[in-house]
Design goal:
- InterPro entries: MoCF_Sase_C, MOSC_domain, Pyrv_Knase-like_insert_dom_sf.
- The structure is a single chain.
- The chain is 13% helix and 33% strand.
- With 180 residues, the chain is α+β, with helices and mostly antiparallel strands.
- The protein has a single domain, classed as PK beta-barrel domain-like (M1 Pyruvate Kinase, Domain 3, Beta Barrel), CATH 2.40.33.
C-alpha cells in the first residue's frame, strides 16, 4: 500500500490552522521541527492541563486529502493545514490502518501511527457544522472519528509535498485505532 504527501504544514504558535510549506523536518522522538506540538511530552493545551508529563503520542497529525472532497460535497471548503494537520496524504485509507503501522514518508522519515485524532469543538470555530462532518456513528451507535490520525516520529528526515508514502503494517493481530 502506498500514497503521496499532498501537502505539509506547521505552526510555531497555537493556531488552529497551520500554514502549508514546501517541506517539514521530522525529528525522531519529538515531532515536526518548528511546530508548537513538537516535544516528548504532550503539547496540546487540554492535555497539558490534565497531566503535562504524559508522553506525546500526537507529534505528527495526518489527514487524508479525500476527506476534503467529503467536506466539499457537504458544502464546506477546507484545504491542507486548515484543520491543524501536519501532513495531508492522498491515496491511503488512514482511518483503516491499525495501531502501530509505520508510514515511510519520503526518503528517510518514518512515523508510527498511535491512534485517531479526537476532534474538538474548535473545528466548529473554523466552520460552523464541520464537527458533525468529522464525527459520525456506525450502525451499532459507536462514534466514528474521521479527523485524521496521530503518530510519533521514529526516524527523522525531511518530508516534501509530492513525496511517496509507503505503508508497513504491524504483525497480526492488528489493533484498530482508538482516540489518543
Amino acid at each position: 500500500m502506498s500514497g503521496v504527501v499532498a501537502a505539509v504544514s506547521r505552526s510555531e504558535e497555537y493556531t488552529f490552522t497551520k500554514p502549508t510549506v514546501d517541506s517539514i523536518t521530522l525529528l525522531a522522538g519529538l515531532g515536526v521541527e518548528d511546530d508548537i506540538h513538537q516535544g516528548v511530552t504532550v503539547k496540546h493545551r487540554s492535555r497539558v492541563r490534565r497531566d503535562p508529563s504524559q508522553p506525546n503520542l500526537r507529534q505528527v497529525h495526518l489527514i487524508h486529502q479525500e476527506l476534503f472532497d467529503d467536506f466539499r460535497a457537504a458544502g464546506f471548503t477546507v484545504g491542507p493545514g486548515q484543520i491543524g494537520e501536519n501532513v495531508t496524504t492522498s491515496g491511503i485509507d488512514l482511518l483503516g490502518l491499525p495501531t502501530g503501522t509505520l508510514l515511510h514518508l519520503g526518503a528517510e522519515a518514518v512515523v508510527e501511527v498511535t491512534g485517531l485524532r479526537n476532534p474538538c469543538a474548535q473545528i466548529d470555530n473554523f466552520a460552523t457544522g464541520l464537527l458533525k462532518q468529522v464525527l459520525g456513528k456506525d450502525d451499532a451507535g459507536n462514534v466514528i472519528r474521521k479527523a485524521g490520525i496521530m503518530s510519533v516520529v521514529l526516524i527523522g528526515g525531511i518530508v516534501h509535498t509530492g513525496d511517496q508514502i509507503r505503508v508497513e503494517l504491524p504483525a497480526q493481530p492488528h489493533q484498530p485505532l482508538q482516540p489518543v
